[in-house]
Amino acid sequence: MEYIRRGPVLFDGGMGSMLIAAGLGEKEIPEQWNFLHPEIMIEIHTAYLEAGAEVIQTNTFGATAIKLAASEGGRGLDPSAVNEKAAELALEALRLFSGGRGAGENAMPRFVAGDIGPVGEFFPPMGKLTAERARAAFREQAVALNRGGVDLFLIETMYDLREAVEALRAVREVSNKPVIVELTMDLKPRGYFTLVGDAVSKAVEVLIPEGADVIGANCTIASEAMVGLVPEFRRLTRAPLLFQPNAGRPEISGGAAVYRQTPGEFAADLAKILDAGADCVGGCCGTTPDFIRAARAMIDAKGRASR
Question: Exposed/middle/buried for 224, CB within 10 Å: 0-12, 13-18, 19+?
Fold first, then answer.
């Protein structure tokens, strides 16, 4: 948290897009690759570290028991084992990087964030998910990530504030490490809202008292649209803010999502996001190490506060 307050801090980019590019099959889920292709996972983490990311995220976005059980590829996986393995791989990548090209007197500190995504079910009236069931799944994940040795937790892509709160409470029950909570919001005619209608003001009002150390948003919208979201958060709180936009709006080509934004365009928007009050930035869907490398160059050019 001390490092973040002296920011800006650069997080890594997309994981799913990297795995798809590496050959992730249609019936496979990203979390399977922690066991099937650990060497590729280490390569992806290393690529982001080499690009200049200060925080890398574990490959555990869908690694709750609820989410895993909903897919053919996940039903045979033990949630605790998945999360511990993912943390182990991220830390191994960091160890190898820090002992090699990332070493040196002027090397930046690097951190591993335990990634926690939504369970894939809805609360009433859209679904039947209960707070107790959601929190139990998040608690199991948080325990495993904590045991795996992550430095902080990143709860992300939450489209329902109620689910974000249950994830936050679950993490707080098992760890006192820093916790980041990112909602996913879209730009509507009346402003920015989550899928279920949560406004920025409600998010700030709820998440900070619940114990979030850093809040913000990721996914859904492109970097250009996210520039306008930052002031909505900043005018309501002095808490550190993290924003991780997509690499533009996806287009479907050949049955796959294609992102047209260039790394340079993305980095230029991240500069505006930082100027608008963000403390941390990174990338989400469609972003790659090239995007993070461009962001690193932008941050370095802007000049970092004395560390």
Answer: middle
Q: CA-to-CA distance for 46 and 12, rounded, in angstroms?
A: 10
Q: How does pLDDT run across 250-289, given as a tens digit for each residue? A: 777 676 777 889 999 999 999 999 999 999 999 999 999 9
Taking the C-alpha atoms of residue 252 and residue 258, their distance in angstroms, rounded to an integer, is 6
pLDDT (tens digit, 9 = 90+) per residue, 82-137? 999 999 999 999 999 998 655 554 578 999 999 999 999 999 999 999 999 999 99
- For the entire predicted model, the pTM comes to 0.95
Distance from the Cα of residue 220 to its chain's centroid: 13
Rg (CA), the chain: 18
Residue 36, in any domain of the structure: yes
Distance, in Å, from the CA atom of 274 to the CA atom of 295, rounded to the nearest integer, reads: 11
Q: At what angle do helices 223-234 and 200-207 cross, to 10 degrees?
A: 60
- Dihedral of CA atoms 178, 292, 8, 270 in degrees, nearest 10, equals -110
Please give the structure tokens belonging to residue 287: 């972003």
CA pair distance 250, 157, nearest whole angstrom:
17
| Residues facing 216 on adjacent strands | 182, 242
Residue 102 included in any domain: yes
| Residue range(s) defining the domain that contains residue 155 | 2-302
